[in-house]
Specification:
single chain, 523 residues, Helix Hairpins, 7-stranded mixed sheet, 3 helices, extended
């Protein structure tokens, strides 16, 4: 026995939980339904018309003998009526309609005036041509010609004035109409022309009450991590937020929100392995005689690739991460960004001034802290806050749980750094070795207020080349450096901690040699 829907009025099916993915959302709905003995069809909704049909999944609990036979999405198209607004519509919508009705005759009059002016322009040209032909043939009708020209010019002036007045009125109405529509878009939302309902076919042995859980995927939803870092006395308060956008056609009201970095649309199978063949060959005579090296130092003059419009992807370190909102969340379907707090953690922070003059002459205050939030920090923008208030916006890189992290709180205007380089080249007579001596001078100054006291330490970083072949040697001349670097790591980064009093100046000198044998080219 197959029955029609038990009631023409659909049963509400609200959204109770949402798992927001990188570019879509997994929506869960729950409700209580009354089932009768036998097979029946229930109408539920309305729901978002953007729901993915093949992702529909329904489950009945609370009624052991009830089962879901079929679930499908039924859409209906109900376009907006072309009739003018009625008294039931808002004053703003009626005002917009009145402006359109007032603007329409003005546009028609403007078109008529433009056509009339075109005709008068052609008439004036024909009249001038007739005058020229008549004067050439000996006709002398100056009074008639003058009278006709005056009449045409007067009509052109009259219609030209009317056209300017009409265009001014039309432009004023167009500007007012644009503002009205903008206010209408913010104040009201058009009823959806495309609606959808859920048709659920249920089979039960006996009548009763069942709890329905329905889930599906929907596009037009996204989220990205965002942070707020407040720097205090030796500590940093980092608040993790989720910025959620959704335009699914229905509001999410008091839902359990889960944020995930899983990419359900991406393939999960590993890439197919292909044969990678290695071949050996003898080196040529020229290759045996010379060693070609390359100094990878270049000035980049362009701005790189054009940035792609849209949101950047979520950097989760290659592992799917899941975050949960601590309280129910409401996200309207307006396509705007809505910020939801997730976690907050306080960490011990250590700040220092750092500068890499080869990259930038600015001295930046860098704050280092440990990730004590209890979860991995995804890459995202950070609002920087100090005692004086909002100071700017930075970027936080992906940081694992418990790992150290750093944030740049902007540059300091009290410091100035100037970088100078000098290079000399020499070749020895017997071994034909090429020795390149490079000297880098860093001039650091501090400009302070008259009442400012105390020293400030600035960490300077400068890079020296690192050789990857035995024919090329790089040596730091510590005896020529002033002062010698405090440290030099395996990547060739030399570091100094320079203490500057108010108004102080220091010069740091770095000297290193790059020596290569005679068969090395490219140095």
């Amino acid at each position: 026995m197959y029955e029609s829907p038990t009631s023409p009025t659909p049963t509400p099916l609200p959204v109770t939980a949402v798992t927001c993915l990188e570019d879509r959302a997994h929506v869960e709905r729950t409700t209580t339904v009354e089932v009768a003995a036998g097979v029946q069809r229930l109408l539920l909704g309305p729901v978002s018309a953007l729901a993915v049909d093949r992702s529909l999944h329904a489950e009945l609990t609370g009624a052991p003998d009830a089962a879901v036979v079929d679930v499908r999405l039924v859409r209906a198209w109900t376009p907006r009526s072309p009739q003018p607004p009625t008294d039931e519509d808002s004053r703003l919508r009626r005002h917009a309609h009145a402006l359109e009705e007032e603007r329409r005759p003005l546009e028609q009059r403007r078109d008529r005036l433009r056509t009339r002016l075109d005709v008068l322009g052609k008439l004036s040209a024909d009249l001038l041509r007739d005058i020229g032909e008549g004067a050439g043939s000996g006709e002398t009708e100056a009074e008639r010609w003058e009278r006709e020209l005056d009449r045409v010019d007067a009509e052109i002036d009259t219609h030209d004035d009317e056209l300017r007045s009409t265009e001014a009125q039309s432009a004023r109405l167009a500007a007012e109409l644009k503002q009205t529509w903008q206010a209408l878009d913010l104040a009201e939302e058009e009823p959806p022309a495309l609606t959808a309902h859920i048709e659920l076919t249920v089979r039960a042995r006996s009548a009763g009450t069942a709890h329905l859980r329905l889930s599906h995927l929907t596009p037009c939803a996204a989220w990205r991590p965002a942070y707020r870092a407040a720097l205090g006395d030796g500590e940093l308060t980092l608040q993790t937020d989720a910025v959620v956008w959704q335009r699914t056609g229905e509001d999410w009201t008091d839902v359990r929100l889960t944020l995930s970095t899983a990419r359900s649309a991406h393939a999960t199978a590993p890439p197919r392995l292909v044969a990678d063949r290695l071949t050996l060959r003898d080196r040529s005579t020229a290759e045996r005689r010379t060693v070609d090296v390359e100094l990878r130092e270049e000035d980049i003059t362009d701005l790189g690739p054009t940035p792609v419009a849209g949101l950047p992807g979520v950097d989760d370190g290659g592992e799917a991460r899941v975050l949960h909102a601590s309280a129910p969340v409401s996200v309207p379907s307006d396509g705007r960004a809505h910020r939801t707090p997730l976690t907050s953690a306080v960490s011990a922070a250590r700040s220092e001034y750092a500068c890499a003059p080869e990259l930038s002459p600015l001295v930046t205050e860098v704050v280092r802290f440990a990730n004590t939030s209890g979860h991995a920090l995804l890459a995202g923008p950070v609002d920087l806050v100090r005692g004086s208030g909002f100071t700017g916006r930075g970027t936080l890189a992906f940081t694992a749980q418990g790992a150290p992290a750093e944030l740049a709180f902007g540059s300091s205007d009290t410091f100035r750094v100037i970088r100078e380089t000098d290079e000399s080249r020499d070749t020895t007579g017997l071994t034909h070795r090429t020795v390149v001596t490079r000297t880098v001078r860093l001039h650091l100054s501090r400009f302070s207020a008259p009442d400012e006291t105390g020293e400030r330490v600035v960490g300077l970083r400068e890079r020296i080349p690192v050789s990857e072949v035995s024919e090329v040697e790089v040596r730091l001349r510590k005896e020529a450096c002033s002062p010698a670097p405090d440290s030099l790591d395996a990547e060739g980064i030399a570091r100094w901690n320079v203490a500057l009093p108010p108004g102080g100046r220091r010069t740091v000198t770095l000297v290193y040699e790059l020596s290569s044998s005679g068969k090395v080219t490219g140095v």
